[in-house]
Design brief:
- By secondary structure, this protein is an alpha/beta fold.
- Helix content is 43%, strand content 16%.
- It is built from seven helices and seven strands; from the N terminus they run ααβαβαβαβαβββα.
- A five-stranded mixed β-sheet has the order 3-4-5-6-7, with helices on both faces. Strands 1-2 form a two-stranded parallel ribbon.
- The longest helix has 17 residues, at 52-68.
- It is elongated.
- Bound molecules: iron/sulfur cluster.
- The site of iron/sulfur cluster (SF4) has 12 residues, from α6.
Length: 193
């Protein structure tokens, strides 16, 4: 807090504080302590977090858990990768803690009932909606039997059948389509929303 004191003594209080660490538990404890000691806005980040996968995991835990506690005003995700991925990662962390805008996706883990390429479809849906600025939840589910019910909170979604899929909106079936047209049909319905 020494640096902050120097600024305050100069009558300067337009301050945002960052106290990053690459060690997640240390980072979380440091920000918690800081939030108890001052009212300045805090800029959260796990520094030198690592490559895409581990960097995202560390940032999600560090930044995400603090945001869930109501700590933090701005965030930065640091990845050893394309900076564009840092932006999407930051947006996804905000979405995951319920603070971000944009399309949220729920998708099932697949099981013995799955009869379509759900993993491939979910990845395509994720890529197709990532720049859409609509506050909706989209479900990508493997089967109709449990899928529509399990995705109860979704605004719109798709549930796989055998080589086909059913579109649903607010828990009600819309129509059935071939698997290869599933993505296009879903995106066309999302566009109308
Ligand atoms: S939604 Fe259907 S396919 Fe997906 S995990 Fe549940 S039961 Fe299995």
């Amino acid at each position: 807090m020494g640096h902050v004191k120097i600024l305050e003594e100069c009558d300067f209080d337009d301050i945002v504080i960052s106290i990053k660490s690459s060690d997640v538990p240390t980072m979380i404890s440091a920000y918690r302590l800081l939030s108890e000691k001052c009212n300045y806005p805090l800029h959260l980040g796990v520094t030198e977090a690592g490559t895409e996968r581990m960097g995202l995991i560390k940032s999600s835990i560090g930044i995400g858990s603090l945001l869930c506690e109501g700590i933090g005003e701005t965030i930065r995700v640091s990845l050893t990768d394309d900076p564009v991925k840092e932006i999407y990662a930051a947006k996804d962390i905000l979405k995951a803690v319920g603070k971000g805008s944009g399309v949220k996706i729920v998708s099932c883990p697949t099981c013995g009932r799955t009869r379509i390429d759900l993993v491939g479809l979910a990845k395509k849906v994720e890529a197709a909606v990532r720049d859409i600025d609509k506050d909706i939840t989209v479900a990508v589910m493997g089967c109709v039997v449990n899928g529509i019910g399990e995705a109860g909170e979704a605004d719109i979604g798709i549930a796989g059948g055998d080589g086909c899929a059913v579109l649903f909106k607010n828990g009600q079936k819309l129509y059935k389509i071939d698997e290869e047209n599933a993505l296009a049909a879903l995106m066309s319905e999302i566009e109308k929303m």
